[in-house]
Design brief:
heterodimer; A: about 325 residues; 3-stranded antiparallel sheet; 15 strands; B: alpha+beta; two-stranded antiparallel ribbon
């Protein structure tokens, strides 16, 4: 029985590999591989390697177990509230999101037929290779997110609605807690990649040069070229305020002088393989790379308006002012 | 006879212009190629109706006539309003009486009420004639508009999306072709966007029918027909020309203005508010 299973698994793996090798991406009228459509990179696989799974590749039972746990978590969160539950005590943390708001994916990332334990593929341990100085800087920035309440500029970009949380718009484009959708449209000389959160259209020029290093833009400056079936995008000139890519799922620091190289390859009618490398000698002891499946998403993407209804930011600042007043009054 | 000849020449020229557009710029799926970075060259964002130049958007009574309001007086000539012939067909917006009163009230309270001042999404059609370019991405499968102002975006559905699921700032857009004209029907708006800095407004019953018609390789005619029975006595139309940027200028920049309005919106919540 075991032998048969092994043969089956091996032949399935071969079939999966063969399917990819045989797959010919559709072409646009201009003859480029067609990457257009609405895609999602939502997955329960974390960016960095889980401690209890040291290997990059998970077994099927391991992947099943992680997906089952995710389903159970969602079911628990969706269960009706106990009508007899007592009200929270004054000062209790009632939490932020319940599972209704969370849309981080339900499946383990499946790349080339492999279930992945981390989106990072290199270094081999699946961990971000920070230099000690960058790790210290990262901790300092995280503390300033917690404690920095003196003005709006100290709050993270997602709270300010300047760009989405974490590294959702990237690059690299990494999944966050929700709104992990992207739309790609190809036009002569450019590829537009819309990140749902914060309605951010990344406009990748095909060919050309980056501006002088003192010109810095949100999501950096992206230049692309085609290598066979792959769109290769190089991004530099990052805005310094985008160095901390913080969200609930991860908090990544990279310097504004990083170079990010992304590779978009359509490997099936319903999947783009998204590969990236971050080259940043100021923050990391070596370049780090990752792979994320971008799966065809049931569209469409609806409007993401954030700033227009941003009650959180004034609430956070006003809360800090109120707290300071209460503390002062208590001291008197 | 001469008159007939002239008419014939005119028709032939018109036909050849249309053919040139397609020959020079190519087509996308048999329709005019709308790809490019486009922008108006008018002052409609100040006031879509005809207006003379004036000292400021926000005025207050002075001893010898209106003067700039205190909040904007320091801007001097930079804060002044350039004149415009207006873009409303027929010259006047057919407001219902109550709505005309509200428009005047909006104008008098411009600093407090214009959503542009707070960097809110501009809505339609205002997004088109903001003093910023926008880029059209036009392929066989998709038409997508990215606006420089506030990083606003619109995906133009090419298959009927049905009723909009909810009200939004930029609405829901459904594109069809009428010959060489891209017709975009936009619905599902909230009532919080304006048409310009002069307080011209609409309700959440707004329906905008836009017509994008190439004139030649570098210009496009833009029409937006406004239907909103709650505010106006009849449908009315704006018309203007869109110009295609060329060379090094044909690139969208970023104008993510949210951070530029944080002092205005949240400055009073600082630990130490500025004097």
């Amino acid at each position: 029985m075991n032998t048969i299973s092994t043969i089956c698994a091996a032949s399935m793996l071969l079939m999966a590999t063969a399917a990819r090798a045989d797959y010919a991406a559709p072409r646009t009228a201009a003859g480029e591989p067609d990457l257009q459509g609405v895609w999602t990179n939502a997955t329960i696989t974390p960016v960095e390697r889980m401690n209890f799974f040291p290997q990059l590749v998970l077994t099927k039972p391991q992947a099943d177990m992680l997906e089952q746990r995710t389903r159970e978590f969602a079911e628990r969160g969706s269960a009706p509230t106990d009508p007899d539950a007592p009200p929270p005590e004054a000062g209790d943390d009632v939490g932020g999101y319940n599972s209704f708001w969370i849309d981080a994916g339900t499946t383990v990332a499946l790349v080339n037929g492999e279930y992945r334990s981390s989106l990072i593929t290199s270094p081999a341990d699946g961990k971000l290779p920070y230099t000690p100085a960058a790790q210290a800087k990262r901790v300092q920035l995280l503390m300033s997110i917690r404690d920095g309440l003196d003005g709006p500029e100290q709050r993270p970009l997602g709270e300010r609605c300047l760009v989405g949380f974490g590294s959702t718009s990237g690059p690299p484009m990494l999944p966050v807690l929700y709104n992990n959708n992207y739309q790609i449209v190809q036009a002569p000389g450019s590829v537009m990649i819309l990140a749902e959160m914060n309605h951010d259209a990344r406009i990748v020029r095909i060919g050309g040069e980056h501006p002088p290093t003192d010109v810095r833009t949100w999501m950096g400056d992206s230049i692309g070229h085609w290598e066979g079936d792959t769109l290769v995008v190089e991004t530099t000139n990052f805005h310094p305020a985008q160095s901390m890519r913080a969200c609930i799922r991860y908090q990544i620091y990279m310097s504004a002088n990083a170079t990010v190289t992304e590779r978009f390859t359509r490997v099936a009618h319903d999947q783009i393989l998204y590969q990236f490398t971050v080259d940043d000698a100021e923050a990391f002891s070596e370049p780090w790379s990752g792979e994320i499946p971008m799966r065809a998403s049931e569209g469409p993407i609806y409007e993401y308006a954030c700033h227009e209804g941003n009650y959180s930011l004034p609430g956070i600042l006003a809360g800090a002012r109120r707290e300071a007043r209460t503390t002062d009054e208590g001291a008197e | 006879m001469v008159r007939h000849m002239r008419r014939l020449v005119g028709v032939l020229m018109a036909i050849s212009i249309v053919q040139c557009v397609n020959a020079a710029d190519g087509t996308v799926a048999g329709k005019p190629d709308l790809n490019g970075v486009w922008q108006v060259l008018n002052t409609a964002n100040y006031d879509i109706e005809a207006h003379a130049a004036r000292a400021a958007m926000a005025l207050r009574p002075g001893p010898f006539g209106p003067v700039p309001a205190k909040a904007v007086v320091a801007l001097g000539a930079v804060g002044a309003v350039p004149a415009g012939l207006g873009v409303v067909d027929g010259g006047e917006i057919p407001y219902q009486p109550w709505a005309l009163e509200k428009k005047k009230e909006n104008q008098a309270n411009w600093l407090a009420r214009d959503p542009e001042i707070r960097c809110y999404l501009p809505g339609v059609p205002r997004a088109t004639y903001m003093p910023f370019p926008f880029q059209i991405f036009h392929s066989e499968q998709a038409i997508f508009f990215a606006y420089e102002y506030a990083g606003a975006v619109r995906n133009i559905y090419l298959a009927d999306p049905g009723e909009p699921p909810t009200d939004t700032w930029m609405g829901q857009s459904f594109g069809t072709w009428d010959g060489n004209t891209l017709v975009v029907t936009a619905t599902g708006f909230n009532d919080r966007t304006w048409f310009d800095r002069s307080g011209n407004f609409h309700s959440d019953k707004l329906k905008v029918t836009e017509r994008y018609t190439p004139i030649n390789a570098h210009t496009m005619n833009y029409q937006a027909t406004i239907e909103d029975a709650e505010v106006f006595t009849r449908p009315w139309t704006m018309s203007m020309t869109l110009y295609k940027r060329v060379g090094a200028d044909a690139r969208l920049q970023q104008f993510k203005c949210i951070e530029f309005v944080e002092e205005l919106m949240y400055g009073h919540l600082r630990k130490e508010p500025l004097e």
